[in-house]
Design goal:
By secondary structure, the chain is α+β, with helices and mostly antiparallel strands. The protein has four helices and five strands. 41% of the residues lie in helices and 16% in strands.
């Protein structure tokens, strides 16, 4: 019986051996992930740029979009990050921004005509709840911002739950408020340019 116990002890790997095996598996997995990221990084950037270009054309048609050197000195709406400001020929401006929604950042572009009215809103990317916050990308919601009658007396938008005229999405008030903050931030950025 003592021979069986000794044989069992010899067959079980040591802690050092297990740590080494786990380290090797982790290193190989990290190497593979890094390699995949290296191979796909340029394609991801190109796809994101293509999506942004399509969204800009959707919100404000122009022959060209010239990225402006915006320094971000305008006072913005809380958690909104400005990714870029573009002059859309003689038609106006397109602002790419990202307010924080329920599921994370809502990447969007807002077209603003030369008279300061909203020409369109396009949601490029989001992580909002399917069937609730994801409805912010539908025309029924986005088109509310192109109606100047939905502006508050101070020239900003707000959702109906905050006393405004933008009908919040059912079950997605946080997303509705986020998109509204993004639109208001875009208006503020363009107003600061003049």
């Amino acid at each position: 019986m003592s021979e069986q116990v000794t044989a069992a002890k010899k067959k079980s790997p040591s802690v050092g051996h297990l740590v080494l095996v786990l380290f090797l598996i982790s290193a190989i997995a990290a190497l593979c992930l890094g390699l995949v990221n290296y191979i796909t990084a340029d394609k991801i950037v190109a796809i994101n740029q293509k999506n942004t270009d399509a969204a800009m054309a959707e919100v404000l048609a122009a022959d060209s979009y010239t990225k402006m050197n915006y320094t971000g000195e305008a006072v913005l709406q809380g958690d909104v990050t400005i990714a870029g400001v573009y002059q859309a020929g003689d038609a106006g401006y397109v602002v790419e921004d990202s307010p924080q929604g329920f599921g994370g950042a809502v990447s969007m572009v807002v077209g603003i005509n030369t008279d300061g009215t909203i020409s369109g809103v396009s949601i490029i990317k989001h992580s909002e709840t399917s069937g609730l916050g994801s409805n912010a990308a539908k025309p029924a919601f986005k088109d509310q911002y192109t109606n100047p009658d939905n502006l508050n007396s101070d020239g900003t938008f707000s959702v109906n739950k905050d006393g405004g005229k933008i009908q919040a999405l059912t079950g997605a008030t946080i997303t509705s408020r986020a998109v509204t903050r993004g639109v208001n931030a875009a208006l503020e950025v363009v107003a600061s340019l003049s």
